[in-house]
Write a structure and sequence with these properties.
The chain is an alpha+beta fold. It contains 7 helices and 22 strands. A hairpin with a 4-residue loop joins strand 21 and strand 22.
C-alpha cells in the first residue's frame, strides 16, 4: 500500500463512518391530531426509542387553528396547556419495531390538562436504534454508530457467555445506559445504585458496575482498550420492577482507528495524532483525529522533492562531508604525532644505551693504559742498569754513557699501548 492508496483508505474510512451514523438520526417532532394515529416504523434489527411526547393544546399549528383561539380566547386552559405522556409512549412503543396509538385514546381522567371537551393533539418524536442480534452471536463488532442490547434478553450476557464488544484497533468503547423505567416506579431508591450487571475491561484490569439511578440516559464507562465484556444480572431488583419499560445498554466506538502503513512508510501515533513519513526521504505528514475522522493532507513518497528541499538536502550533505574531512585530518595528525612520539622515545633509549656502552669502554681503556705504563717504566729501569752500568770514576765516561741511553715514548693506539723508540724510530706494541 503506497501513500496514494493510504490516502484513499483514509477517505473511504471517513465516508463510511459518516454513512453509518445516519440510521440513528432523531426524527423531527410532529403533530398528530385527535383523529390521527401515531404509527412509527423501524427497519430490521432496529427498535423504536421515544424521545418526547406531549399531549394537549400546545400551540397554533396543524391541529389547532387561530380562529378557534379567537372564539374561545387564549386562556391557560385553552392554549399552552399540556401534559407529558412520554412514559405512556415508552410502555406502548419503545423497544418495538412498530406500534399504533390513537391520539383519542390518550385522553383519560388522569390526563386532562385543558378544559374538557376541547380538541387536543399529540406532539411526539422518536428515533430508530440499532440492536445487536443475539440470536446469531454474542460477539459484536462495534462502530461509530451506537448499538444497543436489551438487558431483559436471556441468551447472551451470562458469565459463561458474556457479551463481547470489540471496536477497531485504535478506537475506544463508550458504554451508556438507557433506562426507560419511570422515576416513580423505582420504589424510592433515589440515587442508590441498582446493580444490573458489570462491565469487564481486561485492558484496565477492572470491573465496572452497571447501575440505574433514575436518569433516562447516562454514560457508564469509557474503555481503556478497544474491547470489553458485559455480564448481566438477570435477577436484579431493577429487572423485576421494570414491567413493560425496556432498559438498554448502548455502546459505540469513539476516536480514530489505526492506519496500517505500507512497507515504504513509517507511522507513529500518540493519542489523536498520527505522523506518517517516507523511509526513502525526509518527507512526513501529520493527521489529527477530529470527531472520529483523520484530518490532514497526505503527500506521495514517490513525488519529486521541491527545489528548496533539494537545496536543503544538498547543504546538509555538504556540511556532513566537510565535517568528515575535518575529522579525517584530525585523525591523521593525531596518528602522526603518536608515531613521532614513539620514534623519539625509541631514539632516546638507543642514545642512552650507546652512551653507557661507550663510557664503559673508555673506563676500561684508561685502566689498561695505566697498568701498561707502570710495567714499561719497570722494564726501562732494568735495561738501563744492566746494559749500561754506572761507574763512579770519571764524569766523562758517565756523560757519554748517559748520552747513549735509549729514549722511549708511550702512546695509545688501536691495538692498545704502543712503545716508540725515539732513537731508532721503531714502534713496538
Amino acid at each position: 500500500m503506497d501513500i496514494t492508496k493510504l490516502l484513499l483508505y483514509v477517505t473511504i474510512s471517513m465516508t463510511s463512518s459518516m454513512t453509518k451514523g445516519v440510521s440513528s438520526i432523531r426524527e423531527q417532532t410532529k403533530e398528530y391530531c385527535m383523529t390521527e394515529t401515531f404509527k412509527p416504523q423501524c427497519s430490521k434489527n432496529e427498535v423504536i426509542l421515544m424521545e418526547s411526547a406531549i399531549y394537549g393544546r400546545m400551540q397554533i399549528g396543524k391541529c389547532l387553528k387561530a380562529e378557534e383561539i379567537e372564539t374561545l380566547g387564549a386562556g391557560p386552559r385553552h392554549l399552552g396547556c399540556s401534559v407529558d405522556v412520554l412514559s405512556l409512549m415508552d410502555e406502548q412503543c419503545s423497544g418495538k419495531m412498530t406500534c399504533e396509538i390513537r391520539v383519542f385514546d390518550i385522553s383519560d381522567d388522569k390526563r386532562q390538562p385543558c378544559f374538557s371537551g376541547l380538541k387536543m393533539h399529540l406532539e411526539a418524536s422518536y428515533r430508530c436504534i440499532n440492536m445487536a442480534d443475539e440470536t446469531r452471536n454474542c460477539a459484536v463488532k462495534v462502530s461509530r454508530t451506537p448499538t444497543h442490547i436489551d438487558i431483559s434478553r436471556n441468551v447472551c450476557g451470562t458469565q459463561s457467555q458474556p457479551w463481547t464488544l470489540e471496536a477497531p484497533i485504535g478506537q475506544k468503547l463508550v458504554v451508556s445506559l438507557v433506562d426507560l423505567t419511570p422515576t416513580e416506579s423505582q420504589n424510592g431508591n433515589g440515587n442508590r445504585c441498582q446493580r444490573m450487571g458489570y462491565i469487564v475491561d481486561r485492558a484496565a484490569g477492572r470491573n465496572i458496575s452497571i447501575c440505574g439511578v433514575g436518569s433516562r440516559e447516562k454514560q457508564l464507562y469509557a474503555s481503556t482498550g478497544n474491547a470489553v465484556e458485559i455480564v448481566l444480572d438477570r435477577h436484579s431488583e431493577s429487572n423485576k420492577n421494570q414491567r413493560n419499560f425496556p432498559i438498554f445498554l448502548s455502546f459505540e466506538a469513539v476516536g480514530c482507528s489505526d492506519i496500517v502503513p505500507s512497507e515504504d512508510n513509517w507511522l507513529k501515533r500518540r493519542d489523536d495524532v498520527i505522523v506518517i513519513g517516507c523511509y526513502s526521504s525526509r518527507q512526513s505528514w501529520q493527521l489529527n483525529c477530529i470527531n472520529g475522522k483523520w484530518v490532514g493532507a497526505i503527500g506521495n513518497c514517490s513525488k519529486e522533492m521541491s527545489k528548496s528541499e533539494q537545496m536543503r538536502d544538498t547543504d546538509d550533505e555538504s556540511k556532513l562531508s566537510e565535517k568528515a574531512e575535518v575529522l579525517a585530518i584530525v585523525s591523521i595528525c593525531g596518528f602522526t604525532l603518536a608515531i613521532c612520539f614513539i620514534i623519539v622515545c625509541i631514539g632516546a633509549l638507543c642514545l642512552r644505551r650507546y652512551y653507557i656502552q661507550n663510557k664503559a669502554k673508555s673506563d676500561y681503556r684508561t685502566l689498561n693504559y695505566e697498568s701498561d705504563f707502570g710495567r714499561s717504566k719497570e722494564l726501562s729501569g732494568q735495561k738501563t742498569s744492566s746494559a749500561f752500568p754506572t761507574h763512579r770514576t770519571g764524569d766523562a765516561v758517565n756523560g757519554s754513557l748517559a748520552h747513549q741511553l735509549p729514549s722511549y715514548s708511550l702512546y695509545l693506539g688501536q691495538d692498545g699501548v704502543n712503545i716508540k723508540d725515539n732513537h731508532h724510530g721503531q714502534t713496538n706494541p
